């Protein structure tokens, strides 16, 4: 037997595994690195985050990714070069992190690497009847494995697509195993570039739990912060606070069939980008809005669409605990709108209160998915969870890359 298969077999049998989860999201702010200790699998999964950091991307790296990011026309050679480049870079960054944490790579069982989404195209969005749902992540896992010397799982989304899903959101799997709490209706709200939430009902019914994207989180705010402030984001919503919400523009922004579509659904910056905002401005005659008003309106747009999506699952007479994660939870204007828009039956906190730092939650998710792929197999709980084709006993997400 190949020794590396033997090694993987042994890792699968361990009572607990040390897994580095990597996430590079739609905000392109940096690489999230979470060293997780994971015991058990499926509903018995127990996670402790031993170390977490976000390694900021340099302006040069952001520009290299933006050259192909969410664009319909790109330089294909550049995409080809970026695939191994990012894989190698992510591997080097993992090595640097482990060194700074004093953890030898030999003491880490697996790396779980999301890679960088460069294009997301669910059928509802691309509209080509003869093509399936599609999504593309780069930063090839073989390069991560070769750089780190650690068995790496990557490219988690393709199996979901292969079984009829949109390849996202995958958060449902991790959230259900890690955060379900019988007796409490929980809403796990992640506000990254794109916002999504997982509904975890108090009876933990696997047929009811699901995750869905709601639309933009920070992606539009960041795009205009770069333009108006020459900053990566509108820190603490300072510009938004100075502006007035423009109702005509807000109404125009909300005119997209995505918002009325049934759950679960996914989207990305391929749809919600500056061209989308400009079209809404033209349609509503608000092209000359001052920057602060535009930022205030876009912030409200994100929060209204999040709150309206969440409201669809709220039942009268029930209490709900909303646990926030992702960079948007640090924006006080976003969180103030949410508190105002959602009913009093909702209480608000961060996943930090559940033992998982909100900034680390998505990186942890991929560590949990890798754990499940190697040692579990419980990633099936009802057909609602991701529009997977019915009758599938479970899907194992992630491809294995051996270091040599
Ligand atoms: N203090 C702050 N004030 C305002 N916004 C903030 C603050 N801190 C973080 N953010 C926002 O959070 C973003 C980063 O969020 P995060 O890392 O969760 O996104 P991501 O993982 O890249 O996105 P996605 O989940 O869509 O893939 C920043 O780009 C910024 O918009
Ligand atoms: C295609 C893709 O990369 N989607 C991301 C993105 O970022 C947030 C939202 O859009 C979510 O659908 C997804 O990531 C999380 C981790 C998920 O799959 O649950």
Automatic annotation (TrEMBL):
Protein name, per record: Anhydro-N-acetylmuramic acid kinase
NCBIfam families the UniProt entry points to: PRK09585.3-2, PRK09585.3-4
Keywords: ATP-binding, Carbohydrate metabolism, Kinase, Nucleotide-binding, Transferase
Pathway(s) per entry: Amino-sugar metabolism; 1,6-anhydro-N-acetylmuramate degradation; Cell wall biogenesis; peptidoglycan recycling
SUPFAM superfamilies: Actin-like ATPase domain (SSF53067)
Regions crossing the membrane: none
EC number: 2.7.1.170
Protein species of origin: Rudanella paleaurantiibacter
Statement: the UniProt record of this protein carries the keyword Kinase: yes
Pfam families attached to this UniProt entry: AnmK
């Amino acid at each position: 037997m190949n020794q590396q298969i033997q090694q993987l077999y042994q890792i699968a049998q361990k009572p607990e595994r040390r897994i580095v989860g990597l996430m590079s999201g739609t905000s392109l702010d940096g690489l999230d690195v979470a060293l997780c200790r994971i015991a058990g699998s499926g509903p018995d999964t127990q996670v402790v985050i031993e170390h977490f950091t976000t390694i900021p991307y340099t302006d040069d790296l952001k520009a290299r990714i933006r050259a192909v990011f969410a664009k319909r026309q790109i330089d294909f050679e550049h995409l080809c070069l970026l695939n191994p480049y990012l894989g190698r870079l992510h591997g080097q960054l993992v090595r640097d992190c482990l060194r700074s944490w004093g953890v030898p790579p030999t003491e880490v069982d697996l790396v779980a690497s999301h890679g960088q989404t460069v294009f997301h195209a669910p059928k509802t969005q691309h509209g080509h009847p003869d093509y399936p749902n599609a999504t593309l992540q780069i930063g090839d896992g073989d390069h991560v494995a070769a750089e780190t010397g650690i068995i790496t799982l990557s490219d988690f989304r393709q199996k979901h697509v292969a079984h009829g899903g949109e390849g996202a959101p995958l958060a449902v799997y991790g959230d259900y195993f890690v955060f379900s709490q019988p007796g409490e209706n929980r809403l796990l709200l992640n506000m990254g570039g794109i916002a999504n939430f997982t509904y975890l009902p108090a009876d933990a019914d696997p047929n009811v739990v699901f995750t869905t994207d709601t639309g933009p989180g920070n992606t539009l705010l960041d795009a205009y912060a770069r333009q108006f402030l020459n900053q990566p984001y509108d820190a603490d919503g300072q510009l938004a606070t100075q502006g007035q919400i423009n109702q005509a523009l807000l109404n125009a922004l909300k005119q997209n069939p995505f918002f009325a579509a049934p759950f679960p659904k996914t989207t990305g910056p391929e749809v919600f980008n500056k061209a989308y905002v400009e079209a809404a401005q033209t349609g509503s005659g608000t092209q000359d809005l001052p920057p602060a008003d535009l930022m205030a309106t876009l912030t409200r747009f994100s929060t209204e669409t999040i709150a309206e999506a969440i409201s669809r699952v709220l039942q009268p007479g029930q209490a709900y605990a909303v646990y926030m994660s992702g960079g948007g939870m640090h924006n006080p204007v976003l969180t103030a709108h949410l508190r105002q828009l959602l009913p009093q039956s909702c209480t608000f906190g961060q996943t930090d209160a559940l033992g998982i730092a909100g900034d680390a939650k998505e990186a942890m998710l991929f560590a949990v998915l890798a754990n499940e792929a190697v040692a579990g197999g419980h990633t099936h709980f009802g057909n609602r969870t991701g529009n997977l084709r019915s009758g599938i006993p479970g899907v194992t997400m992630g491809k294995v890359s051996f270091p040599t």
